[in-house]
Automatic annotation (TrEMBL):
The gene is LOC107481195. Residues 5-168 form the CSC1/OSCA1-like N-terminal transmembrane domain. Residues 357-621 form the CSC1/OSCA1-like 7TM region domain. One of its GO terms (molecular function) is calcium-activated cation channel activity. One of its GO terms (cellular component) is plasma membrane. Keywords: Calcium, Coiled coil, Ion channel, Ion transport, Membrane, Transmembrane, Transmembrane helix, Transport. This is CSC1-like protein At1g69450 isoform X1. It is a multi-pass membrane protein. The lineage of its organism: Eukaryota, Viridiplantae, Streptophyta, Embryophyta, Tracheophyta. Its main location: membrane. Residues 189-344 form the CSC1/OSCA1-like cytosolic domain.
Length: 710
């Protein structure tokens, strides 16, 4: 009843609370579409066949919760890699912060806010009808000594978060080194990618690479693979796959008609289409063979190559050194894992990559600004007077309390949440055209874009009423930023508490049920064939990491302003802790491994959240006419930035590259390993473009259908 009253006080109808808790009660039951919800187990062949009648589908069981809870960090590491461990450490890190903040906020700051009477007195009897402003710092009297409680709370929480950040940074850095030492030799550790290779009319790209590295790295150079332009082959392979699906569907249709006894139409139009599609498929296969031949590929050399070395140290030395007098030629960089390579985009030149980054930057900026339109709509719904002016015919409806609560409390957050669903895919698509050559770099860059997009459009635009002019005026007048934030941020406390409930709780529960993949599976099932390759999904970090970090930003900034948000955040994080552990066990499998490079993004976002909290506190104490507190708040952001600089110098280099000590120590371990000779031979095969691999859809097994590759 208390939670229901709190939700009602922030504009969420009690009926919606009942619906949510009813949905939450079935979280203990795993859904029945196992092809959607446990694809990892199906792909690994570890799931048992489920009988048609299964009591577990009807009666809620909590076995999956117990399995997720008991999963150790070492088991998670072996199951999903270090990136999954870092993701879960981010959630447990947030849980520690907001458990500590919740104790201070609920048991210390909240009573202080309620005891104030600057806005109105707190009504203990009629709890649900209290305005949310009663629970915020706005209700504390100006100049009151009780504001010192909030001052010390900000200092204590900042110190606690910095201690935790240091501990986590150090722990994950050591975990990254331990993961490196315990790993077997991997191709990307001995490989660099060289781009912008100078072309010559008398030498091929392959000959140029061979000559260059034989001359300058004679003792450590092993071999190389020149990257080919395979866009034509990829388009042909897509056409072949679509034709094969059509043929499979037609054959399936014929078999069904045969079972039904429809013999007169059995050898009719469908067989003619099958023959027609079969001929087209055979022609495409022949065309692919021709493009895959050595003679054709010789003219499709890109100015890029993977170069292999005898040791990790030699590869690291090569990509850290400038290879040519001209810095725009022979550009070396670390090679991604073979499974992490993004083959469709290998830019021809330094200039083309630079132009592509500029175009994507402009497109991202325009998209960010255009997204202010739904934010303006959302803010209009939260203002009843503005709605009555714009739509006079709604005046009579808006007098109904239930309708008012839905429109001002629930509907704005729902519209914003639905609009934000499209942001991660769009950012991922734009980033893929930016010139990155690995999926991990694309996802990391998209993750940063989504984080700052969310901060700009969801936090700042909402706080400043969704007006671009208001945002611009704040940025152009930096002296008054703390004052403007101090006025605007507390006023949106109700909206952001509702946002945590509608966006946070529903997103994490929908992650368990996987509604969108379920609908996609039901739609595509009639068009799929038994020969379709089953693809296990991976966790989209650029979707889920920004969401968790943004809720962390809301919790830190509203910690001393409106501590009522903290219980809702803790509920979200507790759900996320259990549900994501379950997803790593049953649903997701890693498609690549970065060795925990995600953590610096988490650290930087937390530092930004602390600085934002300090700026708001500075403005609040100035508005509340507590000048000494405002003055003593100035050293806090300076100390926080100094701490961040220390962490950047101490830990960040470990996440950028491994040290000489680590590389040579690992190389010495491999010197007496008899498997290394075979490992060097397989390096060339490891970085082979999938478009150049043999394939065949037709039933003809004649040698003519084998790719013409030497």
């Amino acid at each position: 009843m208390i939670i229901s009253a709190l939700l009602t006080s922030v504009g969420i109808n009690t009926g919606l609370c009942v619906v949510f808790f009813a949905c939450y009660s079935i979280l203990r039951k795993q859904p029945s579409n196992y092809a959607v919800y446990i694809p990892r187990l199906l792909a690994e062949g570890t799931s048992k066949r489920i009988p048609r009648f299964n009591l577990e589908r009807i009666i809620p069981f909590s076995n999956w919760v117990a399995r997720a809870w008991k999963l150790s960090e070492d088991e998670l590491l072996s199951l999903s890699g270090l990136d999954a461990v870092v993701f879960m450490r981010m959630i447990t890190f947030s849980l520690k912060i907001f458990t500590f903040a919740g104790i201070i906020g609920i048991f210390v700051l909240l009573p202080v806010n309620c005891w104030g009477n600057q806005l109105q007195d707190f009504d203990v009897v009629d709890f649900a009808n209290n305005s949310l402003d009663v629970f915020t710092i706005s209700n504390v009297n100006s100049g009151s000594n009780w504001l010192w409680v909030h001052f010390f709370a900000v200092y204590i929480l900042t110190g606690f978060i910095c201690l935790l950040l240091h501990h986590e940074y150090k722990y994950i850095a050591l975990k990254r080194l331990s993961y490196f030492y315990s790993s077997d030799p991997r191709p990307h550790q001995f490989t660099i990618l060289v781009r912008s290779i100078p072309s010559s009319s008398s030498y091929s790209i392959s000959d140029s690479v061979e000559s260059f590295f034989r001359e300058f790295y004679p003792s450590t150079y092993v071999s190389h693979v020149v990257i080919r332009r395979t866009n034509k082959i990829r388009s042909l392979l897509i056409k072949a796959k679509n034709l094969y699906k059509k043929i499979t569907q037609l054959r399936k249709h014929n078999r069904q008609k045969n079972k039904q006894g429809d013999y007169f139409r059995l050898f009719g139009q469908d067989d003619g289409l099958i023959d027609q599609y079969g001929k087209k498929l055979s022609e495409i296969e022949q065309n692919v063979r021709l493009h895959q031949s050595e003679n054709s590929l010789a003219t499709e050399e890109a100015r890029a190559a993977f170069v292999f070395f005898k040791s990790r140290y030699a590869a690291a030395t090569a990509f850290h050194m400038q290879q040519s007098v001209n810095p725009t030629q022979w550009i070396a960089e670390p090679a991604p894992e073979p499974r992490d390579v993004y083959w469709p985009f290998f830019s021809e030149s330094f200039m083309r990559r630079w132009i592509s980054k500029l175009v994507v930057l402009v497109a991202t900026t325009l998209f960010t600004l255009l997204f202010l339109i739904p934010v303006v709509i959302v803010q209009g719904l939260t203002n009843l007077k503005q709605l009555e002016v714009l739509f006079p015919f709604l005046t009579s409806i808006l007098t109904i309390k239930f309708v008012t609560q839905i429109i001002t409390g629930y509907l704005p957050s729902l519209i914003l949440q639905l609009s934000l669903k499209a942001v991660p895919p769009i950012m991922g698509f734009l980033t893929s055209m930016q010139g990155y050559i690995s999926h991990s770099d694309i996802e990391s860059s998209a993750c940063n874009k989504v984080i700052w997009f969310t901060v700009w459009n969801v936090f700042l635009a909402t706080v400043f009423s969704g007006s671009f002019i208001s945002l611009l005026s704040v940025i152009l007048d930096p002296k008054h930023i703390p004052e403007r934030l101090a006025v605007a941020v507390p006023a949106q406390a109700s909206f952001f508490i509702t946002y945590v409930v509608t966006s946070g709780w529903t997103s994490v529960t929908s992650e368990l049920f996987r509604i969108i993949p379920l609908l996609g599976s039901l739609i595509t099932r009639p068009f799929s064939s038994p020969d379709d390759e089953f693809e296990v999904p991976s966790l989209p970090f650029h979707r889920d990491v920004p969401r968790v970090l943004f809720f962390g930003l809301l919790g830190i900034t509203y910690f001393f302003l409106a501590p009522l948000i903290l219980p809702f955040l803790l509920a979200y994080l507790c759900l996320a802790y259990i549900i994501y552990r379950n997803q790593f066990i049953n649903v997701y499998a890693p498609k690549y491994e970065t060795g925990g490079k995600l953590w610096p993004t988490v650290h930087n976002t937390m530092i930004f959240s602390l600085i934002l909290m300090h700026m708001i506190a500075l403005g609040i104490f100035a508005l509340k006419k507590l000048s000494p507190a405002s003055s003593w708040m100035l050293p806090l952001p300076v100390l926080t930035l100094l701490f961040n600089e220390y962490c950047r110098k101490r830990f960040l280099p470990i996440f950028i590259a491994y040290s000489t000590e680590s590389l040579i120590k690992k190389d010495r371990e491999d010197q007496n390993d008899p498997r290394m000779a075979e490992f060097y031979k397989k390096l060339v095969i490891a970085y082979k473009d999938p478009a150049l691999l043999p394939f065949q859809y037709t039933s003809n097994t004649d040698d003519l259908f084998d790719p013409l590759l030497s």
